[in-house]
Write a structure and sequence with these properties.
mainly alpha, Vps51
């Protein structure tokens, strides 16, 4: 049954040769690498992928009982016998392989055995040698410990000996202190002080010992003599700042009273500084006690040499002494500050006297900022004088002088160029080679307070005030009135400053003298621009008033000097009306040189041909004419009042805009308003009324084109005509065709 089971297993699905891949060529079947695979087992991947099979004879989960049960139940007897034979062949093959492997490696096994035996012997020898070495090392360690202890004991004894020697040297030095102090006190007092300072603490600590107390007393006596000599030197000799500082410092080290030393320090320093101020004052000419001299004598030296000597001698010495005082006496500057302030005031007074001797800027770059401000103001006034002279100079026939645009450009360019030159001069204060220029408390204060505010902003404000002064009150100062062309030019200059120049100047100043973030507040640009615009507005308004008053004066005289009751029938336009038109035309040309045209209200198609009637209104000409009769004079007055109700109110002295049309309109309003008021004060006859009619029509023909709104001219002329008719004893107007003929002929 066992044999049958073994032979029948060969044809099973799990273990038959056919299922495993067939037989070999010799008729027998041999699984490749079977023993090795059974020894090492399946790979991890195969073990993970393959499910557990207890009937797999080569698998890790093989179960003989399950395998035999399956084979007996599934395989016939022939297969079982074939499988038994195959297994027998495999067993014999494995035995043969094992014998062959043993025969082939027998010599190696023998050699390995001999080698292992020899290694064991050598290892026992090595263990014995290591035991001997460990014993030697223990002996060496014991010897090293004994040597180290001996060395430590020797070092301790050496340190004690060195301490004793050092103590002996210190004692010897203390014994020699009085001799050294006596030897150095006369020639090297600083060295004597250092020696005494080193020995003082030890002597005080051991002064209870008689020997140490004797050394201390002798040292104190020597130091007292040294202090007395230093005091005598401080009071009786003239010392330079370095020697003075060293002398006071040594006295402080000798524990002399600081209060007395500070007073003596300032007294000695004041003597030296007074001498330097006297040397500077000797270079200046003596002041005239009577005050009769008009021209000061020329200076003895150049201004730069004077300032350089003052800076290097007086200022340098004062700064050095002030620094020494702070280093010696700390922050107690209650005496130093008034002392330095008094001397600095005298020095600046000498500088003022020396600067007063200068004539012009020249090459004196390092001057005070307020002097540059005064120089700018003088330069601007000189430029204004040149402009006034150019405006007032007589012109030969056929030869024209410089126009207003040229004068304005020259004035603006000259002032701006001079301001740039002054900024370049002042910038030398912040040069890199100037020692104090890099100090933050100087640079921030100087750039903002001195240059931007004290020079640039102050000059711009002074310029605006000076220009506005020509309009505010020349009569109050007793000065002659400024020519109208100068008022117009200054108005344009201030307006240009407001539009661009102020912004450019402030930007240039901030670039050359940048303000600090935490510095003092600055004047904003819009505030300066507002001041310049206000000055320009005041000048232009004053120009309109002056020119309007000039034209009005002609009209007033022409009305007041004429006999309006006994005048003859008009045949021509009066010469004064032609002069008015000529003057207005000249003003139009003058204003047009500096200001833009402006905007006019749309004109009617018949502005120059409008019928000028004593009974018409500007809004509805001829509307009430049929109702007028000479026997009803009150109707004319009523008509005039009704006309005023429906007419726009005309503001005569309203501010003008910065354009030509607005300026001319303001002048015309003042002129015609004056004519109206003068006519209201006169009594007219028939021909007087007709003359007013002719003159008014002539003015209407030419003046409307200069105004911003023709209705302003028409309304004022209508009021003049209505007032003349109201004041007329025989109000018979002239025919309009005759009026036009006379005006065209005139």
């Amino acid at each position: 049954a066992g044999s049958g089971a073994g032979s029948g297993a060969g044809s099973g699905a799990a273990g038959s040769p056919e299922a495993s891949g067939g037989s070999t060529g010799g008729g027998g079947w041999r699984r490749p690498h079977g023993p090795l695979q059974r020894y090492y087992g399946p790979s991890a991947a195969e073990a993970a992928e393959a499910p557990p099979d207890p009937t797999d004879i080569n698998g890790p989960h093989f179960d003989p009982e399950v395998f035999m049960t399956k084979v007996r139940s599934e395989c016939p007897l022939g297969q079982l016998l074939a499988r038994e034979a195959a297994l027998s062949r495999e067993i014999r093959a494995l035995d043969s392989d094992m014998q062959t492997l043993l025969y082939e490696n027998y010599n190696k096994f023998i050699s390995a055995t001999d080698t292992i035996r020899k290694m064991k012997v050598d290892f026992r020898h090595m263990e014995a040698e290591m035991d001997d070495l460990a014993a030697n090392m223990a002996a060496i360690s014991a010897s090293s410990a004994r040597v180290s202890a001996a060395l430590q004991d020797r070092h301790r004894r050496g340190a004690q000996l060195a301490g004793v020697q050092a103590l002996l040297r210190k004692l010897q030095a203390l014994v020699e202190v009085p001799g050294r102090l006596r030897r150095w006190a006369g020639t090297e007092p600083a060295r004597a002080l250092r020696c005494h300072a080193r020995a003082r603490a030890v002597l005080r600590h051991y002064r209870h010992l008689p020997s140490f107390r004797a050394i201390e007393d002798e040292s104190h006596a020597i130091m007292a003599e040294l202090a007395q000599r230093l005091r005598t030197r401080l009071r009786c000799e003239t010392l330079d700042p370095k020697e003075l500082t060293e002398c006071v410092e040594m006295l402080l080290q000798l524990e002399e009273p600081a209060e007395e030393l500070s007073e003596e320090f300032l007294s000695q320093a004041g003597t030296r500084l007074e001498a330097e101020l006297a040397a500077l004052e000797a270079e200046l000419p003596a002041a005239d006690p009577s005050g009769t001299a008009t021209t000061p004598p020329p200076p003895a030296s150049d201004i730069l040499d004077f300032v350089d000597r003052g800076s290097s001698a007086f200022v340098g010495t004062l700064c050095q002494l002030a620094g020494s005082y702070r280093a010696l006496f700390g922050e107690d500057t209650g005496r130093l500050e008034p002392f330095a302030a008094a001397l600095a005031t005298r020095y600046f007074a000498l500088l003022e006297r020396r600067l007063a001797l200068e004539r012009g800027l020249g090459d004196t770059s390092l001057l005070r900022v307020d002097r540059y401000l005064r120089a700018l103001q003088t330069f601007f006034l000189g430029c204004l004088g040149d402009v006034r002279q150019a405006l007032a100079a007589p012109r030969p026939p056929g030869k024209e002088g410089p126009g207003l645009p040229d004068l304005l450009a020259t004035l603006a360019a000259s002032v701006l160029g001079q301001l740039k030159a002054v900024l370049a001069y002042v910038q030398l204060f912040t040069a890199r080679d100037v020692a104090f220029a890099s100090l933050p408390y100087f640079k921030g204060e100087f750039c903002v307070t001195a240059v931007r505010e004290g020079l640039v902003v102050a000059f711009v404000r002074w310029l605006c005030r000076t220009a506005r002064g020509f309009a505010d009150g020349p009569a109050e100062r007793g000065a002659p009135a400024a020519p109208p062309a100068l008022l117009l030019l200054l108005a344009r200059l201030c307006l240009d400053y407001e539009n661009s120049t102020i912004s450019y100047i402030l930007t240039l100043t901030d670039e050359q003298f940048p303000p600090q973030d935490s510095g003092p507040a600055v004047t904003p640009g819009p505030a300066l621009c507002a001041e310049a615009r206000a000055a320009a507005q005041r000048l232009l308004d004053h120009y309109v008033q002056v020119q309007g008053a000039a034209v009005a004066q002609m009209l007033r005289k022409s009305v007041e000097t004429r006999d309006w009751l006994g005048t003859v029938e008009p045949r021509n336009v009066r010469a004064v009306m032609k002069r008015v038109v000529e003057d207005i035309t000249a003003i139009d040309v003058q204003v047009g040189q500096l200001f833009e045209e402006g905007v006019r209200r749309a004109q009617s198609s018949d502005s120059s041909r409008r019928a000028f009637s004593v009974y018409s209104s500007s809004r509805a000409p001829g509307r009430y004419a049929p109702s007028y009769t000479p026997s009803a004079p009150m109707d004319t007055h009523l008509l005039s009042n009704i006309q005023k109700l429906f007419s726009e109110r005309i503001d005569i002295f309203s501010p003008v805009e910065f354009n030509k049309v607005s300026v001319l309109t303001g002048i015309i309003k003042i002129s015609l308003k004056t004519l109206l008021e003068c006519v209201r004060l006169r009594t007219l006859g028939r021909f007087g009324l007709q003359q007013v009619q002719v003159d008014g029509h002539y003015l209407q023909l030419y003046l409307w084109r200069f105004a911003s709104d023709e209705r302003v001219v028409q309304g004022l002329l209508d009021e003049v005509a209505a007032s003349a008719a109201h004041r007329c004893l025989d109000p018979v107007p002239m025919e309009h065709s005759v009026v036009e003929l006379i005006c065209e002929r005139g």
